[in-house]
Amino acid sequence: MFNKTLIIVTFLIAAAVPTLSFGHAKVLKTSPANEAVLQTSPEKITLTFPEALKVTSFKLENENGDEVSVEGGKSLTPTKEINATPPELHKGTYNVKWRGLSSDGHPIKGHFNFTIAP
Ligand SMILES: [Cu+2]
Question: Domain spans of the chain?
Answer without folding.
Answer: 26-116
